[in-house]
Amino acid sequence: MTDPVQLPLGIRLRDDATFDNFTVGDNGLLLSMLDPREAQIGQTEQVVFIYGNPGVGVSHLLQAACHQAEQAEQGCVYLPMLELKDYSVSLLDGLESLSLVCIDDLEQIAGSPLWEEALFHLFNRLRESGTRLLLGARQTPTNMGILLPDLISRLGWGLVFQVQPLSDEQKCVALILRAHNRGLEMSDELARYILSRSDRGMGALFKVLEQLDNASLRDKRRLTLPFIKQVMGW
Questions:
Q1: Do residues 154 and 123 touch, judged by C-beta distance below 8 A?
Q2: Residue-range domains of the chain with CATH
Q3: Half-sphere exposure (CA, 13 Å, Cβ side) for 83?
Q4: Could you write out the three-class secondary structure of the chain?
Q5: Could you tell me the pTM of the whole model?
Q6: In terms of C-beta density within 10 A (0-12 exposed, 13-18 middle, 19 or more buried), how is residue 113 classed?
Q7: pLDDT tens across the length of the chain (234 residues)
Q8: Closest alpha carbon to 106 in 76, 83, 74
């Protein structure tokens, strides 16, 4: 197993960001490209670029891929550029020795000559080494504001997927499933109520669930409509 890459303190994978915790919705084909347990022969792509609005699961999927690689004892790294853009581009040095590199929030380095050139050279090194590269952003490769033409070309080397948002019904299913995984019983009625009052992004919904879980444990109470209203101030 390759030695782990040293990153600044505070950069770590979320424990709950796994493929099993991801509600697929209309993203079945995308998941088959990212989850090695779902991939069919000939489906593996060296470069996959995924994009979507905040809350649809881009970061979740990249971190899930890293969790899966770690379980298979493969060297991997997750680089959220929102947190790392002010660090040296030397963070990209030596990544070609890993099996998987996941770079998130790619739009954050758009317009930075140093980062764009460093990423361009990383692409070339990863191609030679055969390292898989997963990229996450809010926009398509051509709409992120990248200035280096050769880098724009590299970003389109592999497959490009938009992460499709969940319908309201699918969000309720995801909320109920996540509650069940936490040991909470949540009815369809409660899930629909939370969806009607909370920010509708999955990240925000799961934060509400975490707050309710903590309150339920503290007060030793099950989830009911009055309890949810009390905890959330709704």
A1: yes
A2: 28-162 (3.40.50.300), 168-232 (1.10.8.60)
A3: 12
A4: CCCCCCCCCCCCCCCCCCCCCCCCCCCHHHHHHHCCCCCCCCCCCCEEEEECCCCCCHHHHHHHHHHHHHHCCCCEEEEEHHHHCCCCHHHHCCHHHCCEEEEECHHHHCCCHHHHHHHHHHHHHHHHHCCEEEEEECCCHHHCCCCCHHHHHHHCCCEEEECCCCCHHHHHHHHHHHHHHCCCCCCHHHHHHHHHHCCCCHHHHHHHHHHHHHHHHHHCCCCCHHHHHHHHCC
A5: 0.84
A6: exposed
A7: 444 455 565 678 888 889 988 889 899 989 888 887 765 544 567 899 999 998 899 999 999 999 999 999 999 999 999 999 999 999 999 999 999 999 999 999 999 999 999 999 999 999 999 999 999 999 999 999 999 999 999 998 889 999 999 999 999 999 998 899 889 999 999 999 999 999 888 888 989 999 999 999 999 999 999 999 999 999
A8: 83
Tokens 């929102």 belong to residue: 82
**What would the two tokens of residue 128 be?**
């030679």
